Amino acid sequence: IGLIETCTEKRVLKPFPRLTYDEAMERYGTDKPDLRFGLELHNLTELLRHTEFQAFRSVIESGGIVKAICLPDCAHYSRKQIDELTEYVKRFGAKGLATLAFTSDGIRSPIAKFLSETELNAIREHTGANTGDLVAIVADKPKIVNECLSRLRHRMGQELGLADPNLMAFAWVVDFPLLEWDEEEGRWNPSHHPFTAPREEDIPLLDTDPAKVRANCYDLVCNGNELASGSIRIHRRDLQDKIFKLLGYSDAEIQERFGHLLEAFEYGAPPHGGIAPGIDRLVMLLAGDETIRNVIAFPKNTAMVDLMFGAPSPVSEEQLRELHLQIVLDDEA
Questions:
Q1: With b meaning 16 or more CB within 10 Å and e meaning fewer, what string describes 34-58?
Q2: What's the rounded Cα separation, in Å, for the pair 56 and 130?
Q3: In angstroms, how far is the first alpha carbon of the chain from the final one?
Q4: Residue 188 near residue 247, CB atoms below 8 Å
């Protein structure tokens, strides 16, 4: 904070708020929210669970959700502007974007006729929409809905001039899920890495409901960017072994790949952890840039070439022999 306030004219939002992962996803649709402005997401799933509008009801009945974002003073948007927003969210998986424009002459919307007056009033109250506001709604699987609306939120925060470029809005995000279920592979994957410790009180859930286990990890985010990420590591053999088995490793694989680590734990490894800051991203924000390519020490071009050092470059046979490496071309493989 001192560095930022001393070396730049930017202001720092203090104190840093702390959000759980679930709270961040529910309110902002992302685990690295930009807190310089509001535009929070609103969950309409329960309000519309028994709606007669099949486009929403079918999604809810199949396990999906319906969420909305209220865009202030956007009720005047033309059909063309709304179509542009619709095409934008489609890029991230949405099948469409439903809108309700609350004007002084009433509600302007292609879906209003499918919703009851009670439902329309409930949506307006739940989203806090005022006359002149536009409510944008996405219905789909939770992951798609959150991704689409978080992207739309970020875009509109910029377009509406709500994101103050001179404000640094830091926040801690905690209580990430320890594991994620891979539908295609039919197995659990670590959300962070396989050595992250679970929250102590959640350890019993590893045997009954792994999806509810929270990780003892934490991220520092700022203005929609992850600036640092860290965790407390597992230091007990029995717990690490249980995690490996949940991830689908056999006893033989565990011993072959991680036997040295598990053996070390038997000698009394102390609790340990840390955090890795992304200094380049912080410099990017302080410089008012939009990409770290312009601030990192040795940027690469689109061909992944480091122009300063001319890397990658050919190596000599002597260097290959020294490292016991051999180059095998595709046509020789």
A1: bbbbebebbebbebbeebebeebbe
A2: 23
A3: 54
A4: yes
C-beta atoms surrounding 198 within 10 Å: 24
Measure the CA–CA gap between 136 and 70, rounded to whole angstroms. Answer: 6
What is the distance between the alpha carbons of residues 237 and 255, in angstroms, rounded to a whole number?
12
Place of tokens 């209580």: 175
Residue 246 resides in a domain? no
The confidence score (pLDDT) of residue 155 equals 96
Query: Hunting for tokens 């033989």 — which residue is that?
Result: 252
**CATH code for position 117:** 3.30.1360.30
In this prediction, residue 246 carries a pLDDT of 94
Q: What is the largest CA-CA distance in the chain?
A: 80
How far does Cα 271 stand from its chain's mean position?
28
Whether 59 maps to a domain, the answer reads yes
For residue 161, the model assigns a pLDDT of 95
One-letter identity of residue 13 = L
> What CA–CA distance (Å, rounded) separates 248 from 187?
7
Return the sign of the alpha-carbon dihedral for residues 280, 281, 285, 290.
positive
* Residue 158, C-beta contacts closer than 8 angstroms, at least 6 positions apart: none
Kindly report the pTM of this predicted structure.
0.86
Q: Which residues contact 240 (CB under 8 A, 6 or more apart)?
A: 195, 234, 258, 261, 262, 265
> Considering its fold, how many domains does the chain have in total?
1
Positions in the chain short of pLDDT 70: 331-333
Q: What is the pLDDT at residue 328?
A: 87
Using a 10 angstrom Cβ sphere, with 0-12 exposed, 13-18 middle and 19 or more buried, the burial of residue 84 is: exposed
**Contact assessment for residue 100 and residue 111, using Cβ atoms and an 8 Å cutoff:** yes
Rounded Cα distance between 179 and 209, Å, is 11
